[in-house]
Specification:
Shape of chain A: globular
Low-confidence stretches of chain B: none
Low-confidence stretches of chain A: none
Order of helices and strands of chain A: EHHEHEHEHEEEHHH
Strand content of chain B: 15-25%
Number of helices of chain B: 17
Mean pLDDT of chain B: 96
Oligomer: heterodimer
Number of helices of chain A: 8
Strand order of the largest sheet of chain A: 4-3-2-1-5-6-7
Number of strands of chain A: 7
Largest sheet of chain A: 7 strands, mixed
Radius of gyration of chain B: 22 Å
Largest interface: A-B, 56 and 78 residues
Structural class of chain B: alpha/beta
Strand content of chain A: 15-25%
């Protein structure tokens, strides 16, 4: 069974510890909407102080326009819990992020926005960066078979938590799935009130 | 392994197990949330989502709101925050009113930073699961509560169901024994731990802090410690509750009432890691080896003792750390080998959910008393809450700061993240008691050095960073 989760151009962001303050700076957090963050993604790196695009920043390079797969290094998304970070990345057009590791809250936030975050060993991430040095890459991501496919029958496998894979493949409503346990929630509340009445 | 070990549990595992409502998937449990704290920045989209799906707030009585991230600290008014922030604050007020959620708004005398007021109001109690759309929710782990930051989709999930899907995290024990030297504070301890483990060292773990140095800490110190456990990537920080914890909670507005108090304490006393519980990773640190810390780079692991020299990028064997150091030094305007004690500061910020509590202000004031802020330095004290502010005024700390030339502000998150108008200008160097020295965190181009309140106060007076351990030793000699 093959199911292509995503396919497209890869943008290599060769940095460790990219924090969510970099992904979307504070001044964009006063919005009450979930939309409109694409332009703000990596704002301080992407634009010069006068507002013009920074030609040296990888996202702005002509060969990476239209990229949908982001390749980066370790501890991506560390820092603030702001879900505006995955919103911005997804609204810009990335649906897959490949990295050596992710910060926990960012990881959950991204999954909750139906994004696929692929964690690979340092060695494999290095191999992928090496591929990118050979020229712009077009990859396919097969979530069902857990493979990054480079074309010409070349591929790299990846691991993913079974529950997360299931969620991404089925597209089940995050809250709806938990609501199926509503009667258990009510039972829990009752026993909680009996055993720890101070909790309310 | 023997039977005892098989049954033995860590504190984290005990709290996790007692909150399982049911199983969602083979490795995912649905956990009950005892307290949900919300604020203006990460909640509006959650409320819109609820409305869109025709859902309601399941337990408004277990939800609690405050205004903190983008409020003005000049004036306690919703109108002082600027237009877009005002709209966000109004949205929070409207959402709370519509859903009957208690809110400490700007007209309430106790309003303040969510992680300061939670404990202050007695909302934070041992054994609870506490969540908030803010990464520094880890602060509440100081009480032996499992507390962690969540995103807005999860905020919506908790509002709707009072639960959250979770998987068991790995367990990390950070055991710190021995006595801290004079002028070494909990802030220095957690910065030294982050320096040792790295910003990703705690990823996938819940960290429990234990040992004699932790037991000797006040609740405020423990909060500072747990607050920054997220800066090493840990899902949460935890400290087993003890008499210091119970004494802090007793009498607080939302603490267990008299008729439940004894039962609550009895339960809380069961909240510790069993002696034969096995942690996935254990780190031991001798408290006596910790010195006053200061960050030199652009993430919290780029930290050193204040009397050390700025490291040369070449001294890092890991190539990515070397690159990161090179980039950090360029951003920070520093040279390898430089002493930060020779480095002039432009701004001093004492505040944030890390260090804006009364003990922090006392520690800072003790170095400021009778002195003046150095010429050319802009210094701010932003108390964490209305309660802290009133107490500091009653104790005479506010006058000490004001007489010295500090600005004495209204409570809020302020210059920690500069969502309001408290920002550090590009190229300016700031001694900050906050938690993140990321590029641009305090303002585009701002150069942040994380330090303890005492170190920040000393920097304000000297106009440059000071090794307070050596300086005071000299004074006493």
């Amino acid at each position: 069974m093959s199911k292509i989760f995503a396919q497209g151009l890869v943008c290599p962001l060769d940095k460790n510890n990219v924090d969510t303050d970099q992904i979307i700076p504070k001044q964009f957090l006063t919005s009450v909407s979930r939309d409109g963050f694409a332009e703000a993604m990596f704002y301080d790196w992407r634009y010069l102080a006068d507002g013009a695009p920074n030609p040296d920043f990888v996202i702005n390079k002509p060969e990476y326009q239209g990229a949908s797969i982001l390749l980066t290094r370790a501890n991506f998304g560390c820092g603030s819990s702001r879900e505006h970070a995955p919103w911005a990345i997804k609204q810009y057009g990335f649906t897959v992020i490949i990295a050596e590791s992710f910060a926990d809250i960012f990881f959950n936030n991204s999954v909750n926005n139906a994004m696929l975050l692929i964690q690979l060993s340092k060695t494999n991430v290095e191999l992928l960066f090496n591929r990118c040095q050979q020229g712009p890459q077009q990859w396919q991501i097969d979530l069902a078979s857990q493979e990054i496919m480079f074309g010409n029958n070349a591929a790299m496998g990846f691991n993913i938590d079974a529950d997360i894979k299931q969620r991404l493949l089925s597209g089940l409503d995050f809250i709806g799935s938990s609501e199926q346990l509503n009667s258990q929630i009510a039972d829990y509340e009752q026993s909680r009130k009996a055993s720890q009445p101070w909790l309310g | 392994m023997g039977q005892a070990t098989a049954n033995a549990k860590t504190l984290y595992q005990k709290i996790y197990a007692s909150h399982v409502v049911g199983k969602l998937n083979p490795s995912t449990d649905l956990l009950y949330v005892d307290r949900h704290l919300i604020h203006e920045v990460t909640s509006p989209q959650a409320f819109s989502g609820l409305k869109l799906a025709n859902r309601s707030v399941r337990r408004p009585d277990l939800t609690f709101a405050t205004m903190d991230h983008n409020v003005s600290t000049q004036r306690r008014s919703i109108d002082a925050a600027g237009d877009t922030s005002r709209k966000q604050l109004e949205a929070l007020a409207a959402n709370c009113e519509e859903n009957r959620i208690p809110l400490l708004d700007l007209t309430h005398p106790d309003q303040g930073i969510v992680h300061v007021i939670g404990p202050e109001q007695g909302l934070t109690q041992p054994g609870m699961i506490i969540v908030c759309g803010d990464s520094h929710t880890s602060t509440h782990g100081a009480f032996g509560a499992l507390a962690f930051g969540i995103g807005t989709s999860e905020v919506e999930h908790v509002l709707a169901t009072q639960t959250l899907p979770q998987q068991q995290a790995k367990t990390l024990k950070v055991e710190i024994n021995g006595q801290l030297s004079a002028h070494v504070t909990p802030k220095d301890v957690i910065m030294a731990v982050i320096g040792k483990l790295g910003t990703a060292g705690g990823n996938g773990y819940v960290a429990e802090f234990s040992g004699s140095a932790i037991r000797a800490m006040s609740m405020e110190g423990r909060m500072t410690l747990c607050n920054m456990s997220i800066e090493m990537g840990a899902k949460a920080g935890l400290i087993a509750p003890d008499q210091i914890t119970f004494d802090y909670i007793k009498g607080k507005a939302h603490a267990p009432k008299a008729e439940h108090w004894d039962a609550a304490v009895q339960y809380w006393q069961s909240l510790y890691s069993d002696t034969d519980a096995v942690f996935d990773t254990v780190v031991e640190i001798d408290a006596a080896t910790i010195t006053p810390q200061i960050t030199w780079g652009t993430n919290p692991e780029q930290v050193m003792a204040v009397d050390q020299s700025v490291p040369a990028p070449g001294s890092f064997t890991d190539v990515t750390k070397r690159d990161a150091a090179e980039r950090a030094l360029a951003y920070m305007g520093l040279e390898p080998g430089q002493k930060l004690t020779d480095c002039k500061v432009d701004v001093v910020f004492i505040g944030s959910c890390t260090n804006s509590r009364i003990e922090d202000l006392r520690a800072a004031a003790s170095l400021v008393r009778g002195k003046k802020v150095a010429a050319g330095v802009r210094a701010l004290v932003v108390p964490g809450s209305g309660v802290v502010k009133r107490q500091a005024e009653a104790e005479g700390l506010a006058s000490i700061f004001k007489d010295a030339g500090f600005e004495w502000r209204e409570p809020g998150c302020s210059m920690c993240l500069g969502m309001n108008d408290d920002r550090v200008e590009a190229g300016q160097r700031c001694a900050s008691t906050s938690n993140r020295n990321f590029e641009g965190r305090q303002g585009r181009g701002a150069r942040t050095h994380l330090v303890s309140p005492a170190m920040a106060a000393a920097a304000a007076i000297a106009g440059k960073f000071v090794n307070i351990a050596a300086a005071t030793a000299g004074e006493q000699a």
